[in-house]
Design a protein that fits this description.
mainly alpha, rod-shaped
């Protein structure tokens, strides 16, 4: 009699395990969908960790395919992968945004002095050929700096950095051309 009870109990436990394995891991799949949605809604993750978001979306697609094929262990594994990639995208995005903010602030802080110096040089360069063009480039640099400041205030650090680097390049070009013209004039 004990043997029959033990045997029935073993079959009952195997039945529960089989039933548990025979249903999709819905809770894990829902968590994966939520994690990817949160990452896709995070502007820092979108801007600074797009490859991790792609991996998270790919894992969701694979998760759904595995669930549709009733391969629930694989579906659970892909759900965990999607969650991991989504959480990393959010975390890495925040770190990258902070770095970009610091870089943009560093670049922008040096520009006002450079603009003033270059403007003074251009204003004092009477009689140099192409002076109007150089003044126009300084004005363009000033406008681009204003755009960079605006992007920075909007927390669009990627464009703030790009504009700041453009300003530096414009000012460097103007200074190089003025130095070249002065050197030619001295000869």
């Amino acid at each position: 009699m004990k043997k029959v009870t033990v045997t029935l109990l073993v079959f009952f436990i195997f039945g529960l395990v089989f039933i548990a394995c025979a249903t999709p891991p819905q809770e894990d799949m829902d968590k994966a969908l939520d994690a990817v949605f949160r990452a896709e809604s995070d502007p820092d993750a979108v801007a600074y960790a797009p490859l991790l978001l792609v991996r998270a979306r790919d894992a969701l697609t694979s998760m759904q395919s595995a669930a549709d094929a009733k391969n629930y262990d694989e579906a659970k594994r892909f759900a965990a992968e999607a969650i991991n990639n989504a959480e990393r995208a959010i975390s890495d995005g925040r770190v990258a945004a902070a770095r970009a903010r610091d870089e943009a602030a560093r670049l922008l802080s040096a520009i006002p002095n450079n603009l003033a110096e270059t403007s003074n040089i251009v204003n004092g360069a009477n009689g140099l050929p192409g002076l109007d063009e150089l003044s126009g480039e300084v004005d363009l640099a000033r406008d681009t700096y204003d755009n960079a400041q605006q992007h920075f205030e909007e927390e669009n650090y990627i464009d703030a950095i790009s504009n700041a680097e453009t300003v530096r390049s414009l000012l460097s070009d103007v200074n190089t051309r003025i130095n070249g013209a002065v050197s030619s004039r001295k000869k």
